[in-house]
Automatic annotation (TrEMBL):
Originating gene: Eif4b
Composition-biased stretches (Basic and acidic residues): 34-44
UniProt feature, compositional bias: Polar residues: 1-11
PROSITE patterns: RRM
Keywords attached to this entry: Acetylation, Initiation factor, Isopeptide bond, Phosphoprotein, Protein biosynthesis, RNA-binding, Ubl conjugation
Protein name, as recorded: Eukaryotic translation initiation factor 4B
Organism whose genome encodes this protein: Pitta sordida (Hooded pitta)
Pfam families, sorted: RRM_1
Protein's job: Required for the binding of mRNA to ribosomes. Functions in close association with EIF4-F and EIF4-A. Binds near the 5'-terminal cap of mRNA in presence of EIF-4F and ATP. Promotes the ATPase activity and the ATP-dependent RNA unwinding activity of both EIF4-A and EIF4-F.
GO terms, molecular function: RNA binding; translation initiation factor activity
Protein's UniProt keywords contain Glycosyltransferase: no
SMART domains reported for this sequence: RRM
Length: 132
């Protein structure tokens, strides 16, 4: 039996309206790079040693060992944890980590906001002027 021609038009062209626009892939970040590279302007990094990171919001019971452990795998050369002059037992809640090379410093900065103890610590480029 032949079907009337009209029955083939039950799906009209209106369904084009419901199609989502294609995704513009050029605006999506490429995941591997975004995951690997911290969002840091390399021009802020020191051009020569010392490659020092400022560590903020440290737990008060932090030790040099725990800092070294936090940055394990990086070439860390020194950790400085200033203490309260009036109470040498008590840390000021910030410190500095010095790295042997610029890449270690760069990698360390990618740990910004990671947890050490029970706090999310700040890792930033230390201000070069303070060591002068």
């Amino acid at each position: 039996p032949r079907f009337p021609a009209a029955s083939t038009t039950w799906h009209s062209n209106d369904d084009d309206v419901y199609r989502a626009p294609p995704i513009d892939r050029s605006i999506l970040p490429t995941a591997p790079r975004a995951a690997r590279e911290p969002n840091i302007d390399r021009s802020r990094l020191p051009k020569s040693p010392p490659y020092t990171a400022f560590l903020g919001n440290l737990p008060y019971d932090v030790t040099e060992e725990s800092i070294k452990d936090f940055f394990r795998g990086l070439n860390i050369s020194a950790v400085r944890l200033p203490r309260e002059p009036t109470n040498p037992e008590r840390l000021k809640g910030f410190g500095y980590a010095e790295f042997e090379d610029i890449d270690s410093l760069f990698q360390a900065l990618s740990l910004n906001e990671e947890s050490l103890g029970n706090r999310r610590i700040r890792v930033d480029v230390a201000d070069q002027a303070q060591d002068k």
